[in-house]
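TA notes, week 10

Several of you asked for a full example with nothing omitted. So below is the full record: structure tokens for the whole chain, then the designed sequence directly under it. When grading your own attempts, check the secondary structure regions first.
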């Protein structure tokens, strides 16, 4: 069973940066696509970005270029966030999918494994 653990969240001032990490364990994970989602209070879980098993990255249409996703050969993934805004405040989740399709990776339902989430709070 694949397990995902996020780390790196915390409190940051607007304009600052954070780097979230997602550590994958519990089996062969190199073939998995990795995604990041976030969920603010009272809102649905939103797609932040994904990286396929081959390293191709996908972002939502609203992507402003402030967030960058990467991964290493062991399927640990990283979300580097810059120029943070108060509206970026949310719980950030890491997820892994056995499917590399771009349409699937944009949806929470496209993922097989989830981390517990890490809180990111951006103060104004």
């Amino acid at each position: 069973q694949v397990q995902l653990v996020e780390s790196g969240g915390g409190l940051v001032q607007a304009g600052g940066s954070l780097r979230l990490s997602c550590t994958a364990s519990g089996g062969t994970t190199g073939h998995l696509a990795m995604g990041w989602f976030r969920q603010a209070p009272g809102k649905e879980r939103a797609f932040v970005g994904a990286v396929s098993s081959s390293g191709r990255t996908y972002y939502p249409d609203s992507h402003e270029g402030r967030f960058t996703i990467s991964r290493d050969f062991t399927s640990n993934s990283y979300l580097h966030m810059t120029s943070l805004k108060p509206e970026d405040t949310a719980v950030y989740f890491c997820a892994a999918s056995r499917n590399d399709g771009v349409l699937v990776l944009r949806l929470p339902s496209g993922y097989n494994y989830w981390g517990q989430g890490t809180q990111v709070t951006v103060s104004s």
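The mean pLDDT is 94. Use that as a sanity check on your answer.
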